[in-house]
UniProtKB/TrEMBL annotation, chain A:
UniProt topology in membrane: Multi-pass membrane protein
TM regions (residue ranges): 20-50, 71-91, 97-115, 127-148, 183-202
Function field: Part of a membrane-bound complex that couples electron transfer with translocation of ions across the membrane.
InterPro entries recorded: NqrDE/RnfAE, RnfE
Quaternary structure annotation from Swiss-Prot or TrEMBL: The complex is composed of six subunits: RnfA, RnfB, RnfC, RnfD, RnfE and RnfG.
Keywords annotated in UniProt: Cell inner membrane, Cell membrane, Electron transport, Membrane, Translocase, Transmembrane, Transmembrane helix, Transport
Enzyme class: translocase
Major subcellular site: membrane
NCBIfam families recorded: PRK12405.1, rnfE
HAMAP family in the record: RsxE_RnfE
Its EC number(s): 7.-.-.-
Similarity comment text for this entry: Belongs to the NqrDE/RnfAE family.
Protein name per UniProt: Ion-translocating oxidoreductase complex subunit E
UniProtKB/TrEMBL annotation, chain B:
Job of this protein: Part of a membrane-bound complex that couples electron transfer with translocation of ions across the membrane.
Source organism phylogeny: Bacteria, Pseudomonadati, Pseudomonadota, Gammaproteobacteria, Alteromonadales
Obligatory cofactor(s): FMN
Transmembrane segments: 20-38, 44-61, 218-234, 241-261, 267-286, 298-316, 322-340
Annotated Pfam families: NQR2_RnfD_RnfE
UniProt EC number: 7.-.-.-
Superkingdom of origin organism: Bacteria
Modified-residue entries (FMN phosphoryl threonine), positions: T187
Listed name of the protein: Ion-translocating oxidoreductase complex subunit D
Family to which this protein belongs: Belongs to the NqrB/RnfD family.
Length: 236, 363
């Protein structure tokens, strides 16, 4: 497995920021009421992650160890500001829908975690690719969780896609079932926690199954025991 | 496999889980009859729906977990959960509400934590709260007391309302819930709460036709019936006295205190004790052996805490009744309560006394 494959595997599955590292839970739980919100925040986070990973990797040899964290945070904050202004300019409705959670990307531990753990130790091409894969892994979880909650809560999928993609995207909205009474629990924060827990459980269950298939059970030594009680006593 | 408990000879009764659960259900029968008498057959219809869903969910999940299905179903705990949930749900609520609640109670609250004995929260109450915050409109569809209702309600009507939203003659829930003047009739607790916000005193509010002698019509007798069933449980030693006494004394103390301070705003302790689901909660819900405290002192505290929370949420909270919320809040506190109320082991000094002893020895 070369470095790129390893990074893909780590970012999307084995070390997924949302399902395994459990980082960035605050936006994850707060904005995933619909698929589109999840996708929007996921893309924003991915962009910030790529930018910060590249920059941190470029300056890694000049940053003194003692003050690296403030510097990483400032780099991240700069990229968050860029993304925030871009969203303000081009996807204003989504910008309003996501609200405080766009500036809060700064505090998303997944980003500073990657800067510290990977980008500050590796060349820029790997760091950028790591940013892409971690970002995509995070976005996928946001979207799946958003889909679960939107389906249960509103009975739709991709509602509000026009906020992100322009007016033509209204056709993307799929109404799975009509409901007069929304299942509020799915939309409220407790639903996010429950959904997240179920997703993690599902991931772990799949993991066990995959590992059981991939890893051949090793031939263990067969331990034989001499029985000293029970049957022998009955024989005599 | 059947694990038989062998106990010392001085313990007269040996009951397995199934027998205990069924005894609790039998003891709820007087209350159920009272509820049917005053509010129609809705509770029974919901019980049928809930029982079928709970048992099916339990069987499915236990099968998935590769455990013994028959043994799990036979302990009747799913059936009891169904009963507790069905009794709490308003009689005019639609059937799918009960189905969602039952699946949630068994699958999420009970089995995901490891099944009977491992759930930190009371399944029926967690499901009730889930329904209340998810479907506030349907969960407040209480029927008017039969004596005030304009329409006669047969068992067929109840079933028809639960499954279609209309009774056999085609009246909708809104029509059934309104009085002759077209006002929707609220529950006693709800009415009091709204009346207080419009500037009425509690004495004035309690003059409304849904009350008689300052107590909610119908609700008083339902609470009395559950009290009777609860006393029966105590007599049969299915439950201990600590939790119900804790709940009742806790509610009585705090409501009495505020009633004495300002009787025009705070209703009397008697009103609080015989309103809503208080007696049902005190004897049937709070006493759940799994999610309640396990020490005697802890049980008293646990019960008193529930009583306190019921009063606080009823009086200053956003919901008219609060048994479910109070039970869940105190469920969260159970590990802490149990930790601090561990009984002294026979032959050992209590921790406090031995600390004093140590201090004396040092001097």
């Amino acid at each position: 497995m070369n470095e790129y494959q390893e990074l893909t595997w780590q970012g999307l599955w084995k070390n997924n920021p949302a399902l395994v590292q459990l980082l960035g839970l605050c936006p994850l739980l707060a904005v995933t009421a619909t698929v589109v919100n999840g996708l929007g925040l996921g893309i924003a986070t991915t962009l910030v992650l790529i930018g910060s990973n590249c920059t941190v990797s470029l300056v890694r040899n000049w940053v003194p160890k003692e003050i690296r964290i403030p510097i990483f945070v400032m780099v991240i904050a700069a990229f968050v500001t860029i993304v925030q202004l871009l969203m303000n300019a081009f996807t204003f409705k989504l910008y309003e829908a996501l609200g405080i959670f766009i500036p809060l990307i700064v505090t998303n531990c997944a980003i500073i975690g990657r800067a510290e753990a990977y980008a500050s130790k590796n060349p820029v091409k790997f760091a950028a690719f790591d940013g892409v894969m971690m970002g995509v892994g995070f976005t996928l979880v946001l979207m799946i969780l958003g889909a679960m909650r939107e389906l249960l809560g509103y009975g739709t999928l991709f509602s509000g896609a026009e906020l992100l993609l322009g007016d033509w995207a209204t056709v993307l909205k799929i109404t799975v079932f009509e409901t007069d009474s929304q299942f509020l629990l799915a939309i409220l924060p407790p639903g996010a926690f429950l959904g997240m827990g179920l997703l993690i459980a599902l991931k772990n269950a799949l993991n066990d199954r995959v590992e059981a298939m991939v890893v051949k059970p090793q031939e263990g030594k067969v331990v034989t025991r001499a029985r000293v009680t029970g049957d022998t006593a009955a024989d005599s | 496999m059947m694990l038989s408990l062998s106990s010392s000879p001085h313990l007269k009764r040996q009951r397995n889980t199934g027998q205990v659960m069924r005894l609790v259900m039998y003891a709820a029968i007087p209350g159920l009859i009272a509820q049917t008498w005053f509010f129609g057959f809705g509770a029974l219809v919901h019980f049928a729906v809930a029982a079928a869903t709970c048992i099916a969910t339990e069987a499915l999940i236990v099968e998935l977990r590769k455990r013994d299905v028959e043994r799990t179903i036979k302990d009747s705990s799913a059936l009891l959960t169904a009963l507790l949930l069905a009794v709490s749900i308003p009689p005019y609520a639609p059937w799918w509400l009960t189905v969602i609640g039952s699946v949630f109670a068994i699958a999420i609250v009970k089995q995901l934590y490891g099944g009977l004995g491992n759930n930190p929260f009371n399944p029926a109450m967690a499901a009730y709260v889930m329904l209340l915050i998810s479907f506030p409109v349907q969960m407040t569809n209480w029927a008017p007391v039969a004596s005030l209702s304009q329409y006669e309600e047969s068992a067929l009507d109840s079933a028809s309302i639960v499954f279609t939203g209309y009774n056999v003659e085609g009246y909708s829930i809104e029509q059934l819930r309104s009085d002759v003047d077209g006002h929707t009739m609220a529950t006693p607790l709800d009415h009091l709460k709204t009346a207080l916000t419009t500037g009425e005193t509690s004495e004035e509010a309690l003059q409304a036709p849904i009350y008689s002698n300052g107590l909610g019509q119908g609700w008083f007798w339902i609470n009395m019936a559950y009290l009777f069933g609860g006393l029966l449980l105590l007599r049969l030693k299915v439950i201990n006295w600590h939790i119900p006494v804790g709940v009742i004394v806790g509610t009585f103390a705090i409501s009495g205190f505020f009633h004495l301070i300002d009787g025009s705003v705070y209703a009397s302790p008697l009103f609080h004790l015989f309103s809503g689901g208080l007696m049902f909660g005190a004897f049937f819900i709070a006493t759940d052996p799994v999610s309640a405290s396990t020490t005697d002192k802890g049980r008293l505290l646990f019960g008193a805490g529930i009583g306190l929370w019921i009063y606080i949420i009823r009086t200053w909270g956003g919901y008219p009744d609060a048994v479910a919320f109070a039970v869940l809040i105190m469920n969260m506190g159970v590990p802490l309560i149990d930790y601090y109320t561990r009984p002294r082991t026979y032959g050992h000094r209590s921790e406090h006394k031995s600390a004093i002893k140590r201090a004396e020895d040092r001097d």
